[in-house]
Amino acid sequence: MDSCWCCPVQELYVDAFLHNNRLEHMVQVMSFHPDYLACFLKTQQYMLRCYGPLPYDYRHFIAIMAAARHQCSYLIGIQTNEFLLQGGDERWLKGLSHIPKKLQDLYELNKIMAHRPWLISRAHIERLTQGNDNWSIAELTHAVVLLAHFHSLASFVYGCGINAELDQSDGHSFESPGNGGGNSGKSPLSRSPHSLTGSSAHEMEGGIEVLMEKMRRLTEEAAAEEVTQEELLKRFERVETLSAELPAASKQAFSPKEDILCYVDDAEFTYQDFAKRGQPTELPTFRAQDYSWEDHGFSLANRLYPDIGTYLDDKFNTAYNLTYFTMGDNTDVDTSSFRRSIWNYIHCMFGIRHDDYDYCEVNQLLERNLKAYVKTVTCFPERVTRRDYDSFMREFKHSEKVHVNLMVLEARMQAELLYALRAINRYMT
Ligand SMILES: CC(C)C[C@H](N)C(=O)O
Hints:
Helices cover 57% and strands 1% of the residues. With 429 residues, it is an all-alpha fold. The protein has one domain (1-429). This is Sestrin. It is found in: Cytoplasm.
């Protein structure tokens, strides 16, 4: 990798090693972006090993349950180790029917948050928090943060094609004949090519020059054009209808493997396209202005689980604002419109609308391959292939592709949390 071995990264590596007893591949990949990595490590350390109302074995088991929604054996493996190190009961690892009822009850929320968070209602929160030996609101907030963290982290792991750690079962193996690539041949990115987009003509869209020109033009036009609220709403609704149609998945290819199956219930419950959810006139839009992270989510999270709001806020802001003013080999570029369109596109897939934003920009700045990739990583991470990774933003550097994945991780996590926290808030008021 081309990041330099200077102090900040080295110090972060030492910290990560001391916390995790290993330097995970995922941490190494994140180190392309040291400012982000610093926030990530602090936050994860806090929610898993420091202050919080949930016992440690619960925290790691919730992580396992969350990662299993996307069949992410990489994260399941790491979290299983941690679970056992914390003295977790080995019987729980036999699967969902062997865990305490309290954790079983959380499964429905896990499932909905992972795939269709817009369905979370105050009734879900009520069911979990009432009765004997049930969830306290503080515990539930901790759980919700863990769930969102591990769902989104699974997106990152698949999106970057992170290989298994050497001590995991797929981690150290010989290359199979004819597989000349540098990884174990087991990682999702190295799976047989299954193209998102099919024709190679699409793969050649634009290029950096064209994209930069579009960004320049949009800035000029935006200054000149006055757009009404109704028109902005229409443009938002159009993003999804114009959005990348992903090919239907074959059931077999994506049904959970044997060792993961025990942590999965209702595997067929997956993401559903926003545009197909109801009548176009009554799309269940979530207006970011009505319940935003900055004005609502942040303070509620902090109140129910002290300091987590601050950690998350730092991490969201770092990911959202991260820039090196580069695009491939070009320097001094203002990339904010491009990055904003990626972030808002991710929110859009969850029905979250920022009503001061012109969604026209999403369709203009994000080429089809990029949209299809971002959509797959966000909604169906287990389906990403090496070919998908190679064919989006072809002229960009690996560090920039990882940068896009960080945005997916954070925007997705924020979207899940917004829905969950809004439901908690509704229950409490
Ligand atoms: C995702 C990338 C295009 C981001 C870009 N390299 C920047 O520094 O802002």
